[in-house]
Amino acid sequence: MAGGSHYALGYLLGLSLWAWRPMLRVEVRGAENFLRPSILAFWHGRLLGVLMNSLGAGAVSMASRSKDGALAAGALVAAGIRVTRGSGSRGGGEALRAMRAAIAAGSPFAGLTVDGPRGPWREVQPGVVLLSRWLGFPVVPATFSCERPRVLRSWDRMVLPRPFSRMVVEYGDPIPPEALGGKLPDAAAAVRDRLEELTAALDRAVAGRELWPPR
């Protein structure tokens, strides 16, 4: 595994989420869609809000084996999320199997940044579909938006909620595994379309505009 110092920094960043969340006015929409067990699917750039609404939930997620992945792993562990290490390019199959074992052992849900650790931006990788098929659990699209957001110029255009602002986390309609049959690219595109629609509509409702450009 790479990046012991990155993991330590990530852990400190994860701890900061516990202090950050009480400074936000958090609203949750579609809570009835957040089935357990299930697989939460969200964009990398919308990770923070979804994560802050899952602090200490005992879920399982994935981080790559790179130094950036070590940073993410530290943050997730500090947030009370169990982490498996791997990505589409290194150890992805092993990490998915570990996630499957964690859910079978009692983790209430899995959470996946479906455009991977480094993109392509807003393109769903097949891991979420494979995990849904293996487990027979639905995929639940998840996103967030906020008033007065800060949008970084990073590859994922990460959205940051400013302290003391209103943040809305929304869970979309579950996608059952039987709806994700057929070819992997088609099933991944179906998850992508649901996430795009959910995120754009929430941005318009909360931020007053779409924070990311249309596809």
Structure report:
- By secondary structure, the chain is α/β, with parallel strands linked by helices.
- It has one domain.
- The protein has helices at residues 4-20, 47-52, 67-78, 92-104, 127-135, 184-206; strands at 25-29, 38-42, 60-63, 82-85, 109-113, 139-146, 150-151, 159-160, 166-171.
- A seven-stranded mixed sheet has the order 1-9-6-2-5-3-4, sandwiched between helices. Strands 7-8 form a two-stranded antiparallel ribbon.
- Strand 3, helix 3 and strand 4 (82-85) form a beta-alpha-beta unit.
Summarize this structure briefly.
This protein is an alpha/beta fold and 215 residues long. Helices cover 37% and strands 19% of the residues.
Please give the order of strands in the largest beta sheet. Answer: 1-9-6-2-5-3-4
Mean pLDDT: 92
In total, the number of domains comes to 1
Instruction: Assign the structural class, choosing from mainly alpha, mainly beta, alpha/beta, alpha+beta, or little secondary structure.
Output: alpha/beta
Distance between the termini: 35 Å
What form results from the Cα inertia axes?
A: globular
Supply the number of helical segments: 6
The oligomeric state is: single chain
Report the strand count. Answer: 9
Q: What is the element string, with H for helices and E for strands?
A: HEEHEHEHEHEEEEH
Largest beta-sheet details: 7 strands, mixed
Helix content: 25-40%
- CA radius of gyration is 16 Å
* Unreliable runs: none
